[in-house]
Amino acid sequence: MSAIIHGAGAATALSTFNPVDSKKLAAPCRTNLPARSKRYIVAGSDASKSFGSGLRASHSQKLIANAVATKTDTSATTGTGHELLLFEALQEGLEEEMDRDPHVCVMGEDVGHYGGSYKVTKGLADKFGDLRVLDTPICENAFTGMGIGAAMTGLRPVIEGMNMGFLLLAFNQISNNCGMLHYTSGGQFTIPVVIRGPGGVGRQLGAEHSQRLESYFQSIPGIQMVACSTPYNAKGLMKAAIRSENPVILFEHVLLYNLKEKIPDEEYICNLEEAEMVRPGEHITILTYSRMRYHVMQAAKTLVNKGYDPEVIDIRSLKPFDLYTIGNSVKKTHRVLIVEECMRTGGIGASLTAAINENFHDYLDAPVMCLSSQDVPTPYAGTLEEWTVVQPAQIVTAVEQLCQ
Amino acid sequence: MAQHLKSSSSKSAFLNILKHKLGFVSPSHGARHLRQNLPHGPPSIGVSQNPISRLCNTMAEKLSGIGFHEDVNNQVMDFPGGRIAFTPEIQFISESNKERVPCYRVLDDNGQLITNSQFVQVSEEVAVKIYSDMVTLQIMDNIFYEAQRQGRLSFYATTIGEEAINIASAAALTPEDVIFPQYREPGVLLWRGFTLQEFANQCFGNKSDNGKGRQMPVHYGSNKLNYFTVSATIATQLPNAVGAAYSLKMDRKDACAVTFFGDGGSSEGDFHGALNFAAVMEAPVLFICRNNGWAISTPTSDQFRSDGVVVKGRAYGIRSIRVDGNDALAMYSALCEAREMAIREQRPILIEALTYRVGHHSTSDDSTRYRSADEIEWWSKARNPLSRFRTWIESNGWWRDEAESDLRCRIKKEMLEALRVAEKSEKPNLKEMFSDVYDVPPSNLREQELLVRQTIKSHPQDYPSDVPL
């Protein structure tokens, strides 16, 4: 049984609320952390009181926070709010922005009357008309180019790739025009587009539909990239992306669209460049984003049982990295594990490893470890597909290894 | 089916296309002339009754068009997309028509007005401006080209031979029409008021350049003049133009998007995507193809096997015309008509302007390596767009030899002065290397700028003296 204590903040349906069972917590620890971190090992409330951070102080009698997605205290404690699924949150954000600003429009394949292949644009064509929610013929480069041209003339298009992998066909427009024209025109033309779509490894979608485009796009100068993972941040990031003057690529994940969460009724946006603290901790910093967040949190449950206290950060902003939040965490825990869905070579994890090594080398007690998918096209067979993606068991092993 | 295609290639049908300018207010817009041999019936699926009605939901309307229609002789059936007549004969549509699509021209090779020609009358003022700007463009090109050869400029691409396309098309448009150029259309900017000094500033990349010295020469851009910054990639501006047209359509503006590209550009995927999109979106955009015979060293025979680019319009459901690109009056007239059609009927138009690239592809090219010097000479002298138009304006009493020599003398002086000033001007500040990547420089770029500045401090002798810090 996992001894999980949680005070404030509602979470996803997976949260559990259990009182502290001190007998269980006092189990002997099996690991030996170096002197500096030893004080965190014993799972007793006394230890945490002496070394807790400001955030932890509010949980003074409670050592280990919830193992799954936690929002900051402010959001759901109000009690009001409404529950919805992630794709509905995206739609709500999009609709609110379209109501607010008549320049916002949507274009993509099957976004209009069909409502989008993942129903993110459902109902919008009925409300705003065919032109503002535009069904395009199949040519990703052409409709991305169209979006860029429209943006240069004052509109704020939200371009949907039916699957992020299809946007490989739009690479020319994204890299050469979207990323560059603000710069090469001397700042004369802005391109406030949002390019969004589902990506990542799904359930047996085949290699071509399981791509992680964030690896390929991360080098393009001039664009920003964010990845949403909960209904709360999905809506917030969608709204922020639309309001941004820079081109933003919003990565959604095929398997996260049906996540349910209660989000505030009042309007809010999330900061595009900020990472999200999912679970504060002391022993190790685990950096992740999108679907892997949930694998990490699942592993965190196990880890907590074993006496570890991982700090989990959903980096959310893939370009640029929120090195402020990440740095503070590294300075605290001195160990970093990156868990990503990208492939080993040239993924977000690779860049993040380099950035952390370069900036926080002095604070590290162990080399940065990165768990990624293998450098193979995603197989169709379900069992094989499962093993191309990092599993919670691997995360647990990695943490144990790092914390030795 | 083959029959109706044959008839549309005949001269009468061509003139119909030309005459479809005014009075064509029927909602079954444009494409009706293509369907005249088909039985009449309800409009085909996917075609809205009113182009502007797309601002609301037209799904119901579209759905009502689907279904079977009883036909007396059962020779017709509704497939998705409309009613198709059957035929019991195996007939392949020929890969090309027997006759090539004729080319619209108004002035003959000697600049004489062809009898019974249709054209849009142009005033003396406009005609003289068209001619003067063509001369200015020619002189500007020659001087910049020479400057590059002398090592004063790093790169240049001339527009020699295509002055009429540049200037005459610009003359037919209004300042609100947004231009998406390829890179051989500085004449449009010139017409709109871009000064010789501004051209020189961009070519030298000095601090007065709109683009802050970031792009290579001839990659002009001006927000003020609605001329979008040239992006070196071929044909990527075509979908951008469709997007701009879409934006204009949403705002119901009395303006259209205009985009230029070459014969080579028509092979790029973006050409096909953009034309298709423009037709489906019913976007007011003019696609102007400068078919100048060469894509660097690739002649059109190696670029496509269709009858040029004009026939490709029909494949996408786009009204098209072929024009003599070296006939300024024909270009002007065709563009006037096309622009009006595009905006009034909310449709794209494809214009293939036939011309010849007299200059090299750019200063990095020597075209005598793949084509004969005689060919270049002939087009430069005998088929010169400037002399043809000059003959015509002189015949109207609007131009004289003195005016010519005065103009040439003045422009040459102005150009040399502009060059001198631009060359001496300071380059943009180092900070412009990092600004405008985003709206506000993020921390990593600020850091990188610091690193560059540190490096410069420790190695000042390696840093160019004309770039201010």
From TrEMBL, chain A:
GO terms for molecular function: metal ion binding; pyruvate dehydrogenase (acetyl-transferring) activity. The keyword Chloroplast applies. It comes from the Eukaryota. Pfam families: Transket_pyr (PF02779), Transketolase_C (PF02780). Residues 84-259 form the Transketolase-like pyrimidine-binding domain. Gene3D superfamilies: 3.40.50.920, 3.40.50.970. The keyword Cell membrane does not apply. Its EC number is 1.2.4.1. GO terms for cellular component: chloroplast. InterPro entries: THDP-binding (IPR029061), Transketo_C/PFOR_II (IPR009014), Transketolase-like_Pyr-bd (IPR005475), Transketolase_C (IPR033248). Its cofactor is thiamine diphosphate. It is found in: Plastid, Chloroplast. Its main location: plastid. It catalyses: N(6)-[(R)-lipoyl]-L-lysyl-[protein] + pyruvate + H(+) = N(6)-[(R)-S(8)-acetyldihydrolipoyl]-L-lysyl-[protein] + CO2. Keywords: Chloroplast, Metal-binding, Oxidoreductase, Plastid, Potassium, Pyruvate, Thiamine pyrophosphate, Transit peptide. The pyruvate dehydrogenase complex catalyzes the overall conversion of pyruvate to acetyl-CoA and CO(2). It contains multiple copies of three enzymatic components: pyruvate dehydrogenase (E1), dihydrolipoamide acetyltransferase (E2) and lipoamide dehydrogenase (E3). Tetramer of 2 alpha and 2 beta subunits. This is pyruvate dehydrogenase (acetyl-transferring).
From TrEMBL, chain B:
Its EC number is 1.2.4.4. It catalyses: N(6)-[(R)-lipoyl]-L-lysyl-[protein] + 3-methyl-2-oxobutanoate + H(+) = N(6)-[(R)-S(8)-2-methylpropanoyldihydrolipoyl]-L-lysyl-[protein] + CO2. Residues 134-430 form the Dehydrogenase E1 component domain. Pfam families: E1_dh. Its cofactor is thiamine diphosphate. The keyword Transport does not apply. The keyword Manganese does not apply. One of its GO terms (biological process) is branched-chain amino acid catabolic process. It comes from the Eukaryota. Keywords: Metal-binding, Mitochondrion, Oxidoreductase, Potassium, Transit peptide. One of its GO terms (cellular component) is mitochondrial matrix. CDD domains: TPP_E1_PDC_ADC_BCADC. Heterotetramer of alpha and beta chains. PANTHER family: 2-OXOISOVALERATE DEHYDROGENASE SUBUNIT ALPHA 2, MITOCHONDRIAL (PTHR43380:SF11), 2-OXOISOVALERATE DEHYDROGENASE SUBUNIT ALPHA, MITOCHONDRIAL (PTHR43380). This is 3-methyl-2-oxobutanoate dehydrogenase (2-methylpropanoyl-transferring).
